[in-house]
Amino acid sequence: MKECEPSGGVGIAIVEDEKDLAKVYEKIFSKRGVHICFVAHDGFEAVKKFIDCTPKPHVVLMDYRLPVMNGIEATREILKIDPDTRIIFLSADAGARDEAMRAGAIIFLKKPASIKDIVGAVERAFGKPVPQPV
């Protein structure tokens, strides 16, 4: 099994098919000392990596429009595996909000979302502040 986070730390997973945007999210949280458990570029890959990851990420940043399996389906599958996972949904499609929340997302952010909004959502999901960049 892959070690996904330092002991006692908090971990995040990033599910985004736009690789450049996924790298931006990765940099935002890495610079703040938040452990990146995994990055996935489609919903099926996200579910597989989630299954293989031990311990599980506390928070998942989830895009809606993903190849193979969309973010709603991936959210449902991940929450079947671990109902305590906190899913933050990001989508340019505001119409996906209600479905994302019904699927189990705790926060919905409309893209483009600011770094401040994304970090704030992750802080709410973690229940504690995310450190400033180091």
Notes on the structure:
With 134 residues, the protein is of the alpha/beta class. It has helices at residues 19-30, 43-52, 71-81, 97-103, 115-126; strands at residues 2-3, 11-15, 35-40, 53-54, 59-63, 86-91, 107-110. The strands form two sheets. Strands 3-2-5-6-7 form a five-stranded parallel β-sheet, with helices on both faces. A two-stranded parallel sheet has the order 1-4. The longest helix has 12 residues, at 19-30. The model has no long low-confidence stretch (mean pLDDT 91).
Instruction: Please tally the β strands and state the result.
Output: 7
Radius of gyration: 13 Å
> Which regions contain 5 or more consecutive residues with pLDDT less than 50?
none
Strand order of the largest sheet: 3-2-5-6-7
Distance between the termini: 30 Å
> What portion of residues belong to β-strands?
15-25%
Number of helices: 5
What is the succession of H and E elements?
EEHEHEEHEHEH
Average pLDDT figure: 91
Protein topology:
Layout: E1 2-3, E2 11-15, H1 19-30, E3 35-40, H2 43-52, E4 53-54, E5 59-63, H3 71-81, E6 86-91, H4 97-103, E7 107-110, H5 115-126
Helix pairs in contact: 2-3
Question: How would you summarize this macromolecular structure in one to three sentences?
Answer:
With 134 residues, the protein is α/β, with parallel strands linked by helices. The chain is 39% helix and 22% strand.
